[in-house]
Please model this.
Amino acid sequence: MKNPLTRPLFAGVIALAAAFAQVQAQTQTQMPYVPPVPADDSLYRAFGGQPGLQRLMDDFIERLLADPRMKPFFADADLPHVKQELVLQFCEVSGGPCRRNGPDMRQAHEAMDIGRADFNALVEVLQASMAAQGIPFGAQNRLLAQLAPMHRDIVNKP
Model:
């Protein structure tokens, strides 16, 4: 003989599981992207380690300020701090020994009006800096693949 409470109990468990899955999915879409740390430091080494990342950021900051699309975002920024944060971030996502403890990308950019065109312009400037530093194209692509999903947290205007 079947228990008459089994069917309603089972339906309740299914409904609860569905609600939990929906809340979890909403929470996951709202969580800031955190790039996975590579298993080895080969990408970090391809960028020349810490000295190479420092040189890259020196060039990148200079190019950002020279680019009329990017200058408004960086003209009044604390550039030594921005450079330090970028070196740490690139070091970490490339498999280097650094760990960045600053705000996530969403928090760091929430007060700025950044559109997709702005984000794409920054990537163009970064690519020019990487090419000027002689970073191999494959290494550039590997780094950009790590960073690209951050656009969901950085782009905050239509």
